[in-house]
């Protein structure tokens, strides 16, 4: 058996190894288990899966990787406030624990994409904290120095990725929990647009603000995970469909904002200040034009999260448990959440009014810049410092993060170098909602300009992604038939670098027909005043590949304009009216997959 001790678990490397047959998912997962067993004690895990449990996931993988499984054989960890079927969810509180029957929606999507869960990770109890120390399972320790905090609340997830125990990990981010641990452990943390990833099956912190977040060694890895699980979940009332067309920004020529000098705060850490200045310089060299911004509305919104009535959402999330077992909470967690029972409805409305004022004021920034750059956190504390002064120091860590979900922003945290003592520093790029793809591409460029190390592994960063795949120079195309994921012609999209944006439906103005000919069987989509809503997928295809893709589309099909259920219009497959003469109408099935399934079912 080949020696895998120095194997990088970055997704690109594992995918290449699987394709070339150099190792198998079983071999990699056994190596992962061995690494976890031999790793220094940093209080990363709450529950680890046994081999027989991991094997059950391995057994559902096909023997060879294929394009329908973008995360084939990729090991990942799950923050222990996110459900994994059959494994206890504790939210960092043993007395609260329950065993879910079903995976959280986002976990289910990842498993369907081929990823293999290996365990549930430690966190600040009930996701309340940015430090990683508020857990009865032990204070999670920094990947570079055990005396320092890991950051939280997604503590164990970040450390598991940074130390090479898994390829990626899920966290959550309400106030910064998916960004602060990324900065403190020298990895990438994506806090996607609120609602882009379903939170069904996640123990809420503040349900109206919560996001599932992603940790990885590189932006490319994190983006691959994001696009594998950003399916719209109609059963989550807080889920949001990604617009078929998003403006984005040019990641090579852009304007970026930084807080005014007097509004920057490093809490006495001059080295962090120097590293941030360096990040600003490098972002300018990458094509950005800096602009000093008045950060007042962002900071004012940040103070609302804990000084306002949003703490009542934390109380509401676990109210029945608090009423029966408040004594089971970690002391500092209890001190934060219990006062959430006090604010009145009047206070809640008044706070909402103030927030909307701050949001409107903050919109002025987006008239000046495309993206904003800040430190992820102004400084990094030792565990003993946090134990002495837990509330104030935790609040300091949220200076640049607490406003993000209140103001409906998307963000990525990336490594930005090291202090002279070897501790990492990180920065965050953020923009309005649904700029996730542009942020990921720009974040990757900045990451590589500032450091070449992957987490705390000692290994180099994996090669940069193909710019064509990350470029905003692409065309969204709606497909309704054989080009759908896992169907016979989907490869014509994926081999051209296309990326799945969303699974959705058309407006209720279309009829679907099964056209003669094939194989494979093909549908014809025709707009009609007597139509219905039809299942489609929207793929983002690089512009320089649209021509040869279009050349392969046979008559009577072609690309036209298709109206989606949300009212947006995108390019998509349509059929010329003459093409449906003599064709079987299959509109009643609601989509091509359902029609194919009806053909395969016994009558």
CATH topology of the domain at 11-238 and 383-414: Amidase signature (AS) enzymes
> What Rg do the Cα atoms give?
24 Å
Proportion of helical residues: 25-40%
Provide a count of the helices. 21
Structural class: alpha+beta
Strand order of the largest sheet: 1-3-2-4-6-5-10-11-9-7-8
Q: Strand fraction band?
A: 15-25%
pLDDT < 50 stretches = 467-472
Average residue pLDDT: 92
CATH level-two architecture of the domain at 11-238 and 383-414: Alpha-Beta Complex
Walk me through this protein's architecture.
Among the domains are: 11-238 and 383-414, Amidase signature (AS) enzymes (Alpha-Beta Complex), CATH 3.90.1300; 473-600, Gamma-glutamyl cyclotransferase-like (Hypothetical upf0131 protein ytfp), CATH 3.10.490.10. Helix content is 31%, strand content 20%. It contains 21 helices and 21 strands. It has an eleven-stranded mixed beta sheet, with helices on both faces. 52% of the residues are buried.
């Amino acid at each position: 058996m080949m020696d895998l001790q120095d194997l990088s678990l970055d997704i690109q490397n594992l995918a290449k190894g699987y394709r070339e047959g150099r190792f198998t998912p079983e071999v990699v997962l056994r190596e992962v288990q061995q690494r976890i067993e031999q790793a220094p004690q940093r209080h990363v895990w709450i529950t680890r899966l046994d081999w027989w449990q991991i094997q059950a996931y391995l057994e559902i993988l096909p023997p060879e990787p294929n394009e329908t499984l973008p995360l084939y054989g990729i090991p990942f960890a799950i923050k222990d406030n996110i459900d994994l079927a059959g494994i206890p969810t504790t939210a960092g509180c043993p007395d609260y624990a329950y065993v879910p029957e079903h995976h959280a929606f986002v976990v289910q999507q990842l498993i369907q994409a081929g990823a293999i869960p290996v365990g549930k990770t430690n966190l600040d109890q009930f996701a309340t904290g940015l430090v990683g120390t508020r857990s009865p399972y032990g204070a999670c320790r920094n990947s570079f120095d055990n005396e320092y905090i890991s950051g939280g609340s997604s503590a164990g997830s970040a450390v598991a990725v940074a130390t090479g125990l898994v390829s990626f990990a899920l966290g959550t981010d309400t106030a910064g929990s998916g960004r602060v641990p990324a900065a403190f452990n020298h990895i990438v943390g994506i806090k996607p647009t609120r609602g882009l990833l379903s939170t069904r099956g996640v123990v809420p912190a503040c349900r109206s603000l919560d996001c599932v977040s992603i940790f990885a060694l590189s932006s490319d890895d994190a983006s691959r995970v994001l696009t594998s699980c950003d399916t719209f979940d109609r059963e989550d009332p807080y889920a949001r469909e990604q617009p078929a067309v998003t403006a984005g920004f040019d990641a090579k020529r852009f304007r970026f904002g930084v807080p005014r000098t007097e509004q920057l705060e490093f809490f006495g850490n001059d080295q962090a200040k120097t590293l941030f200045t360096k990040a600003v310089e490098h972002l300018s060299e990458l094509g950005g034009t800096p602009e000093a911004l008045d950060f007042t509305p962002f900071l004012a919104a940040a103070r609302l999260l804990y000084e306002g009535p949003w703490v009542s959402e934390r109380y509401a999330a676990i109210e029945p448990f608090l009423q029966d077992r408040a004594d089971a909470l970690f002391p500092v967690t209890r001190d934060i959440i219990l006062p959430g029972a006090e604010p009145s409805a009047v206070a809640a409305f008044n706070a909402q009014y103030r927030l909307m004022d701050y949001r409107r004021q903050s919109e002025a920034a987006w008239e000046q810049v495309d993206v904003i750059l800040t430190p992820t956190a102004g400084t990094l504390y030792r565990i003993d410092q946090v134990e002495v002064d837990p509330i104030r120091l935790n609040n300091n860590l949220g200076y640049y993060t607490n406003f993000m979900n209140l103001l409906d922003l998307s963000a990525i945290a990336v490594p930005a170098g090291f202090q002279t003592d070897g501790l990492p520093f990180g920065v965050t790029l953020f923009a309005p909602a649904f700029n996730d793809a542009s942020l990921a591409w720009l974040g990757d460029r900045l990451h590589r300009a500032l450091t070449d190390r992957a987490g705390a592994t000692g290994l180099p960063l994996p090669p940069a992604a193909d710019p064509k795949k990350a470029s905003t120079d692409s065309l969204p195309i709606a497909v309704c038939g054989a080009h759908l994921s896992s169907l016979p012609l989907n490869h014509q999209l994926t081999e051209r670098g296309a990326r799945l944006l969303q699974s959705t439906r058309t407006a209720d103005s279309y009829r679907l027909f099964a056209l003669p000919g094939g194989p494979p069987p093909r549908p014809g989509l025709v707009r009609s005043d007597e139509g219905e809503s039809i299942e489609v997928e929207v793929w983002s295809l690089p512009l320089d590949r649209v021509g040869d893709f279009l050349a392969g589309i046979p008559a009577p099909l072609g690309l036209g304009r298709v109206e989606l259920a949300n009212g947006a219009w995108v390019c998509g497959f349509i059929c010329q009216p003459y093409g449906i003469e003599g064709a079987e109408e299959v509109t009643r099935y609601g989509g091509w997959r359902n029609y194919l399934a009806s053909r395969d079912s016994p009558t």
